[in-house]
Amino acid sequence: MTDSANQLTQLFAEHWEAWLRWDPLFATECGDHRYDDRLPEAGEEHYAAWRDQLRAFRQRQGSIDRTALAPAELLNYDLFARLLDNEISALGYHSYRLPISKAGGFHTSLPDLHLLTPFTTVGDYENYLARLEALRRYFQESIDLMRLGLHTGFLPPRVTLEGIEETIRPHIVTDPAQSAFYQPFQQFPAVFAGAERERLSQAAGTAIQGSVVPAYQALLQFIEEEYRPASRESIAASALPAGRAFYQHRIRYFTTLDLTPETVHETGQGEVQRLRAEMAAVIRQTGYSGGFRQFIAFLRTDPRFYVQTPAALLKETALILKRIDGELPRLFKTLPRLPYGLRAIPDFSAPGNTTAYYQPGTGDGTRAGVYYVNTYDLKSRPLYEIEALSLHEAVPGHHLQIALQQELGDLPNFRRFSGFTAFVEGWALYAERLGLEMGFFADPYSDFGRLSYEMWRACRLVVDTGMHALDWTRQQAIDFMAENTSSTLLNIANEIDRYIAWPGQALAYKIGELKIRQLRALAEAQLGPRFDLRAFHDVVLLGGALPLDVLESSVRQWIAARQRL
To answer: DSSP characters for 82-130?
Structure first.
């Protein structure tokens, strides 16, 4: 290994250690439990110091001779530079001063912390207790950060706070045993002595009463007395300090491409028109005689498409997942070793949450991935969407891609445990379409659900840019989604509010999927009978989550190599 390669490896290692220390919750998510006894700091100075650290790492990287690196090392060098540049720029816009909304934030993620944490030793429990005791400090620092945001123009859109109390009040309990944070103390390993169990349980009650409950009480009081009254009626990111530049940065950050809001908006409109034509053809297949809007109303109200209990929804989902598992080897050479599970989204966060989401496991195999399904308001969870949703969130979507990436031991940690949203979400949307090649969507209603999900992502290009850069109203965005998708009105409203709170993120899905589909079409055209879909999927997946331009270079190199055979 050359001196330059050694310097680069050392730089990666030091940055990774600094990252885990800076964000111990991220360390826990990655399966590194050295910092399980602490929460991050949340003050302004914490973010400023991290930006300074990243700048120092970036400056140090610039002193390494790129020309002395092998191709694989050079790729790591360039991706590391891009990661640092993205984060340094993002921190410069101070959007961390808007850390919560009804769709999510530290107040909804921390109650699930026990699901990421091992509980096999007394030390594990004591680490968790230390985090509970630190919760009050962490919430207060976060409140102070939001208060700074109010004083510096980072005002939350009012609509993103509507109903946020429903995600806070469940944690203000009089009986500690009723707290979500108490769950690890409901059952102990068999080897724990009775006195040890009693001590830990009492300590948990004390920490919940003395730290957790007061933290949520203070947050609720702040929101009701200061945060909501100071919130803004406007919804656009362009209304924030340096807002137009910030939104342009968000486009680059989440899509990895230099695109203008207008270009993204036009791309979305074009995809909407294409998908409307395909949806009309499927409606004709069903034999329905009414128009598009009447068909959507029929889907939203006919009881045949809905179950009556959360257990029934999870059962239907599990059946589809097992069918998918059996088809994967036909399309993939390389599959992850890590399994995944299925859970309902917790009740306290379900009302304002998305339809489903995926929680990654750990690369060392000690914690499985989890596909979370929203079982709240079952009349908003149609059966005809389950196939597309499961292909996206579990396999061959998020779980297959993320678990496989974590198992790529030859990659540096920053590539195994982080990546680029356009790739991650673009792959998951591409995975939905793979269902056609796996024998799914045979039922026209499920196929319509697939098209509606793709339409949903196409609409995101239109409504996200519309609201944040092109003066669209929230109602205009809701109406556009309602006119073009079969999603229920509750889902649509929740999604629109998520886009308002998280500018630009919604653009990643369709932009990434379009690029992957374009590259597959290119490979099929240039390789003809020599095209191997399983080999193509290896090329796409075994480099981890890449920027789309880097992915294109990788696929083009693979095509050229295959042509030389």
So the answer is: HHHHHHHHHHHTTGGG---BTTBSHHHHGGGGGGTS--SSHHHHHHHHH
pTM of model > 0.90: yes
Predicted confidence at residue 325, as pLDDT, reads 97
Give the β-pairing of 356-359 and 369-373. Answer: antiparallel
Backbone phi and psi for residue 101, each to the nearest 5 degrees, phi listed first: -155, 180
Query: Which 3-state string (H, E, C) describes 42-53?
Result: CCHHHHHHHHHH
Find, among 108, 107, 126, 104, the residue nearest to 184 by Cα: 126
How remote is the C-alpha of 443 from its chain's centroid?
Answer: 29
Whether residue 77 contacts residue 69, with contact meaning beta carbons closer than 8 Å, is answered with yes
Cβ atoms of 336 and 362 closer than 8 Å: no
Nearest to 91 by CA among 42, 47, 46, 40: 47
DSSP secondary structure of 310-352 = HHHHHHHHHHHHHHHHHHGGGT-S---S--EEEEEPPTTTSTT
For 390-462, strand residue ranges (E) read: none
Backbone torsion region of residue 105, taken as left when φ is above 0, otherwise alpha when ψ lies between -120 and 50, otherwise beta: left
Cβ atoms of 185 and 260 within 8 Å: the answer is no
CA distance 393 to 427: 10
Q: Where are the domains of the chain?
A: 3-235, 247-512
Q: How far apart are CA 306 and CA 378, in angstroms?
A: 7
The Cα–Cα gap between 500 and 508 comes to 15
Contact present, 148 and 45 (Cβ < 8 Å): no
Residue ranges of the chain whose pLDDT lies below 70: 352
d(CA 67, CA 3): 12
Residue among 224, 204, 25 nearest 143 (CA): 224
* pLDDT for res 353: 72
Nearest-CA neighbor of 138 among 242, 24, 252, 226?
Answer: 24
Q: What are the tens digits of pLDDT across the range 163-208?
A: 999 999 999 999 999 999 999 999 999 999 999 999 999 999 999 9
Task: Map residue 371 onto helix, strand or coil.
Answer: strand
pLDDT tens-digit map of 455-514: 999 999 999 999 999 999 999 999 999 999 888 788 899 899 999 999 999 999 999 999
Q: What is the structure's pLDDT at 336?
A: 97
pLDDT of residue 347: 84
CA distance 549 to 258: 10
Residue with tokens 């003809």: 528
Cβ 345 vs Cβ 413: under 8 Å = no
- Whether 403 and 378 have beta carbons less than 8 Å apart is answered as no
Count of Cβ atoms closer than 10 Å to residue 387 Cβ = 27
pLDDT of residue 470: 97
Q: How far apart are CA 217 and CA 563, in angstroms?
A: 65
Q: Which amino acid is at 227?
A: Y
Please report, as a single letter, which amino acid is at residue 179.
S
